[in-house]
Amino acid sequence: ASEDTPVITAAGENNSSQIKCPQNEKIKFKDPLMTGLDKDSDDDGMESLDLEASNKSEEESVSRSSSLIANFRLDDDCDGETRDLFIVVDDPEKHTSTLEAYITFRVTTKTTRDEFEGSDFSVRRRYNDFLWIRHRLEEKYPTHLVPPLPEKHSLKRMDRFSTEFLKVRQTALQKFLTRVADHPVLSFDKCFQIFLTAKAWEFQAHKKQGSGFLTRVSESLNNMSASYMMKNRPPEFALMHDYITLLSDKLGVMDRIAQRVAKEQNDYMAELLEWGPCYTLWANAEDQLAGALLTMSKALDECVRTIKELIDATDNRFAQPVKEYLLYTECIKNVLRRRDAIQNEYDSVIEEISRKKDEKEMIKTSDQTYSIGAFLGKDPEDVKQQKHEKLEQQIADMIRQMEYFNDRTVVANADLKADMERWHKHKQRDLKEIFITLADMHIAYYEKNLAIWENTIRTIQNKEHIQLPSTASINENQDHGIV
């Protein structure tokens, strides 16, 4: 479909057609990991990373503690003054039944939208409910980018009821709802409104109303086949697919390396845990060195605390966001496949129209004397005329189908372009924040360790607290030993 084709809302389509497709505009997706390395590259629209931002004052620490935010920055373009839908996820609560134990979260909503029958709502939802609303949004808006949810089970945290796990899960669910609430189309969905406002029994009744399993399977198979059958994908979407594949590979490498580094850090922490008691036990046998040895043991205990803080902070503020963007790349690939399926239907109709037109031209010059109709006693010219009229009717019907699929393709392209522009801007900002936060955490970690060991040196050198044996006393002890 041409970008200059006007957007015509087809029957059954959603209101996403209001998003206009920019004419003669190419979307450039640039890798923030590579930007700046190539001096000749064109950095249109790319925000430069100010390295001096982390050192605003000589009196401050090198670490920008302000970037070590408790929660990862959310995807929103709107200021607090312009946003009209605020959602907070908090208060995890454990429920136990005869068959299972599960966690629910409180979802509090404040809004000024007229579509809601009030301004304040508070409901409790479990993870499966979040999963349901995401699937519903994907079904109703297949060419929009629905944010990902965190994985249901984590291999690292086997205890899904632990405080640490629930805090990470709560943050991820908060980000999901905030991103949906800030979306110009998804946030106005009726199912999303029911998710935020319906009471428990009403919500369970509404969940039972949905598309069947076989319908979802057939759509999935159609999308998978379309990605292989696509012959003339527009260059901008081919570029988008290549970029997402490359970004997914890079994030995957980062995730694997982060896991190896975390394992090495845990091994290092285990070694420190064994090292500290060695000094304590040694102090029992060295009266004159007891103070220094106990000081070393205390320093190692503090180092264990700092490395544990670094491991936990790295997982929450670096590893988890990287995994989240890995899930985001899979979501984009799925949307691209659904867009390809829509275009594939459009291309198939065009090919069928071309084939029918060729067949109609062949009918004009064909001899119907030996056709089946002629054998049944019909006049060959009448047979030819009937076939000609039948082909004309089929071509007219397929032209209407072509117009319908053309509208769907144009709307799908506009939906995906608009969402990708927003996502690309958010991703660029978020990845910068992730990297700056990681750097800040390591700076803070080494600053703490430096302070620990400097304080250890001062304590050991303070003779008022620790009396170290002099050289003369050591020689005297050696002489007594000889005697």
Automatic annotation (TrEMBL):
Keywords: Coiled coil, Cytoplasm, Lipid-binding, Membrane, Transport. One of its GO terms (molecular function) is phosphatidylinositol binding. Residues 83-202 form the PX domain. InterPro entries: AH/BAR_dom_sf, PX_dom, PX_dom_sf. One of its GO terms (biological process) is protein transport. It is found in: Cytoplasm; Endomembrane system. Residues 332-408 form a coiled coil. Residues 53-62 have a biased composition (Basic and acidic residues). The keyword Flavoprotein does not apply. Residues 40-50 have a biased composition (Acidic residues). PROSITE patterns: PX (PS50195). Residues 30-62 are annotated as: Disordered. Gene3D superfamilies: Arfaptin homology (AH) domain/BAR domain, Phox-like domain. SMART domains: PX. GO terms for cellular component: early endosome; phagophore assembly site. It comes from the Eukaryota. It is a peripheral membrane protein. Belongs to the sorting nexin family. This is PX domain-containing protein. The lineage of its organism: Eukaryota, Metazoa, Spiralia, Lophotrochozoa, Mollusca.
